Amino acid sequence: MPDIFTEFKVKDLSIKNRVVMPAMCMYSSDESGQVRDFHLLHYTTRAMGGTGLIILEATAVERRGRISGNDLGIWEDSQIEGLKKLVDEVHRDGAKIGIQLAHAGRKNETFEDVIAPSPLLFNLKYRTPREMTQEDITAVIEAFGRAALRALKAGFDYIELHGAHGYLINEFLSPVTNERKDGYGGGAANRVRLLKEVTAKVREHWPEEKPLGLRVSAYEYEAGGNTPEDVSFMINLVKDEGIDLINVSSGGVVDSPIEVFPGYQIRYGTEVKSKTNLPVIVGGLLEHHHMANEIIRNNRGDLIFLGRELLRNPYWVLQASRKLGMEEVVWPRQYEKAKGNKLMR
């Protein structure tokens, strides 16, 4: 029976345990979108702390696809060098690393062109977007493809497409934010079309043997919004384009309140797993080692993501190995004296 310390393999990616650091925006670059010293320290610390897979924060495939002026970018070749250095550092400290390819769509705080499937305002913090033309759609699809090639050159182990939290792909998927009357709007088969074309374009550059994931908002907390059943249906329409793993989150599509509690999103992930027959990453305010272990042992998810908890405690995995009595877990050589309870001299 697997637990959080059981190796997980998908395509050519072997992850030493089931703990994933999900993409979390750090807003610590600048207008260049380049990797900075903060990123090197932030991500390598979690690698040293035992995290199995680290997914880099939402990284913009277009300059106009940034959430803020401080987002990381992968829209030009000059950004590859810094990303490669980060990949190499994380690998050196024993973790695998993925990158979340993203486009902000209407949730864009910069002064760039704001685009979306439909000209609907998210809230007063943002500007009203303009409805995308076919030329805009084609440009975005091509941008995702070029970003995938750059990710390959930088040495990433995994790509995740950001289809959650109300950003561009999610805006197309949701009937709440997509009011188009053309082939990209209407029923689910049309609303998933952008994601399908993005996935196909990414797979032109991202090798078949390397895993490609998708992050989704499986529940939208809004009347008429997507449910896990709706999202699973759309995943099943697109998964044959090359989707291998689903990272299940919720919310962010519209400005609606969300009642949160430890594990509040697990049930959505379990349903997506059942309806798509794809492995899933699940989470939602998880903190406790035994709860995380229970999720894996009861097959409610294949991997768990720890967001805020890994911000608070980058050594969560090492601490979990002590609390759960997993003596075989390898600690960094420099920290081995803290692994057991015996006094070390």
Show the helix and strand layout.
Elements lengths: L7 E3 L2 E3 L3 E3 L15 H12 L4 E8 L11 E2 L6 H13 L3 E7 L12 E2 L13 E2 L2 H21 L3 E6 L4 H6 L14 H4 L1 H13 L6 E6 L10 H11 L6 E5 L16 H11 L3 E4 L5 H9 L5 E3 L2 H5 L3 H8 L22
Parallel strand pairs: 3-4, 3-13, 4-5, 4-6, 6-9, 7-8, 9-10, 10-11, 11-12, 12-13
Antiparallel strand pairs: 1-2
Describe the protein's architecture and organization.
The chain contains eleven helices and 13 strands. The chain has helices at residues 37-48, 80-92, 134-154, 168-173, 188-191, 193-205, 228-238, 266-276, 289-297, 308-312, 316-323; strands at 8-10, 13-15, 19-21, 53-60, 72-73, 96-102, 115-116, 130-131, 158-163, 212-217, 245-249, 280-283, 303-305. It is of the alpha/beta class and 345 residues long. The strands form three sheets. Strands 3-4-6-9-10-11-12-13 form an eight-stranded parallel barrel, surrounded by six helices. Strands 1-2 form a two-stranded antiparallel ribbon. The mean pLDDT is 96. The two termini are 38 Å apart. The relative contact order is 0.14. It has one domain: TIM Barrel (Alpha-Beta Barrel). The chain is globular, with a radius of gyration of 20 Å. Strand 10, helix 7 (228-238) and strand 11 (245-249) form a beta-alpha-beta unit.
